[in-house]
Write a structure and sequence with these properties.
Elements (H helix, E strand, L loop, with lengths): L16 E3 L9 E4 L12 H6 L2 E6 L11 E4 L3 H13 L7 E6 L4 H12 L5 E5 L2 E3 L16 H13 L4 E5 L2 H5 L8 E6 L7 H4 L2 H13 L1 E10 L3 H9 L3 E6 L6 E8 L4 E7 L2 E7 L4 H16 L4 H4 L1 H4 L9 E2 L7 E5 L4 H14 L6 E5 L9 H12 L2 E4 L9 H9 L8 E2 L3 H11 L5 E5 L6 E4 L2 E4 L3 H19 L1
Parallel strand pairs: 1-2, 2-3, 3-4, 5-8, 5-9, 6-8, 9-10, 10-11, 11-12, 16-20, 17-18, 17-20, 18-19
Antiparallel strand pairs: 6-7, 12-13, 13-14, 15-16, 21-22
């Protein structure tokens, strides 16, 4: 497109790409000199020109060294970047029904289930922690972010729109909201699931974290719907400040969508859904109390977007759960193996609640986990304290070290244990094999932190990993083969 279609300039420059990384060749591109927490794009203008930028959008005074380059000064480079992205991709999200999900825990599960159920009726897209999806396979997000940056978000949105998707379900992370990645999106529906201490490395404190989440509800259309967990204390606060039409869900407090007579088992859950003075008995393979909250959010979103409860009931019995979220690994063994993405104190507590509910008295809970580098270090004492109190044995192992040394992370994590003396096994596959070798009939093994990830984030980038599921299956097969040999 011509640069003059978006900016007031006499330059008749053709722009074919949006340059995000000035270090990489990107011909016929536009570069926005935006200021981040660490880097200032103004410092990389010359590099951007050398790598193909034909237009530079900036805010500070610069040296205009190339007569063939179009220089455009603006007050807000981020705002200009977002406006250009919308024009470049034809504002695809403005032509779709966009549903945003936020909360400390449950975003991925809620978004994934909503997409899977809508897909029975029409094409539906998903963008979030899993990558992006609208057809037969999950595709990786190039930025490796829960909420992609505007140019990638709109590129993916256009791809989905061209494929016939009418609805997009989007995970709205607090960092994505705070850094304005979603500023170009108008949401028809926004969900607030819960809030607990996390991401202080980004937001600093709980109040700033909450305010970042609230931004999603300011992005609702005039007739948009705010769907809020009324049992969460921050959900109750949001009720007081949100100006959109509010719809509630919950278990303990009276809500528009309320679960009553909840019964939890190790292979299914049952509850009565009360909505509009009608009662629907739900039997679902979604496990644990926190997944009942997730399912209530799903039901509310779908019903408020035109899918009647009666029409979606058949799809609630066997839910397409997100891989790596409270995933039971069953390979004929007589003990429980659970894979979960949990990496915060709050999510640890919920997974241990579930583990205790399926583990008979006198049987052991054995946990394998680590901690990520370059993230909120305040998580480590909390996750360690929960495991120290509630596990019978703990093995600390590899996670996502990023730029830190993994062994130093694990030694630091171990220092927070008071009751237990965790073993450190750096190789995660070996650690999982050891945990499963220790398991006796009726025990529960928890593999926490990686979920369905098939990589480790290291300083050199993504390093391939077979996944906790595959590692567990191999270890179970090895154990069962060994036991058969003894028989």
């Amino acid at each position: 497109m011509k640069i003059s279609e978006v900016f007031a300039t006499d330059f008749d420059t053709d722009i074919e790409n949006i340059m995000f990384d000035s270090r990489k060749p990107c011909p016929a591109s536009i570069f926005f000199a935006m200021k981040g927490k660490i880097n200032d794009g103004h410092n990389f203008i010359d590099m951007a020109i050398n790598n193909g930028a034909r237009c530079i959008v900036y805010t500070d005074e610069i040296n205009k060294s190339d007569d063939e380059v179009c220089y455009i000064k603006v007050e807000d480079a981020t705002k200009a970047y977002i406006s250009f992205c919308k024009a470049f991709y034809g504002d695809p999200l403005g032509k779709m029904n966009v549903i945003g999900i936020t909360g400390t825990n449950g975003k991925t599960t809620i978004a994934w289930i909503i997409r899977s159920i809508i897909a029975h009726f029409e094409k539906c897209g998903y963008i979030g922690t899993m990558g992006y999806y609208y057809g037969q396979e999950v595709k990786d997000s190039k930025m490796w972010l829960t909420t992609p940056k505007p140019d990638e978000l709109l590129r993916i949105g256009k791809e989905m729109l061209d494929e016939g998707c009418k609805t997009l379900v989007l995970e709205a992370s607090s960092e994505g909201l705070a850094t304005r990645r979603l500023e170009q999106v108008s949401f028809s529906t926004a969900v607030f699931n819960n809030l607990s201490g996390d991401h202080f490395d980004v937001h600093g404190d709980m109040e700033s974290y909450f305010k970042a989440k609230c931004l999603l509800f300011e992005m609702l259309k005039d007739d948009g719907k705010a769907i809020i967990n009324i049992d969460d204390e921050y959900g109750q606060r949001l009720m007081d400040i949100c100006k959109a039409r509010k719809i509630t869900y919950g278990i303990d407090n009276k809500a528009d969508y309320q679960a009553k007579d909840l019964k939890l088992f190790n292979d299914h859950s049952e509850f009565d859904l009360v909505y509009d003075e009608k009662t629907y008995h739900i039997v679902t393979d979604a496990l644990a109390r926190f997944n009942v909250y997730n399912l209530l959010a799903v039901i509310a979103v779908l019903n408020e977007n035109g899918y009647s409860i009666d029409s979606i009931l058949p799809y609630l019995t066997k839910v397409e759960m997100t891989p790596g979220r409270l995933q039971m690994i069953k390979a004929g063994q007589d003990f429980n193996v659970v894979v979960d993405f949990a990496f915060t104190p709050n999510s640890f507590a919920k997974v241990f609640d579930f583990a205790e509910s399926i583990t008979q008295k006198g049987k052991k809970i054995i946990a394998v986990f680590g901690a990520a580098g370059d993230r909120d270090h305040k998580r480590r004492p909390g996750t360690a304290a929960i495991a120290d109190e509630r596990a019978d044995e703990v093995i600390l192992s590899y996670d996502d070290p990023s730029t830190e040394d993994m062994m130093e992370i694990l030694i630091n994590l171990k220092s927070y244990f008071k009751r237990l003396d965790p073993e450190i096994i750096l190789d995660r596959i070996e650690a999982i094999d050891k945990a499963i070798s220790l398991a006796q009939s009726g025990d529960t093994i928890l593999l926490l932190g990686k979920g369905s990830d098939r990589f480790f984030l290291c300083k050199e980038g993504r390093v391939p990993y077979i996944s906790d599921e595959e590692a567990a299956l191999k270890a179970i097969a090895k154990k069962m083969e060994k036991n058969e040999g003894k028989a």
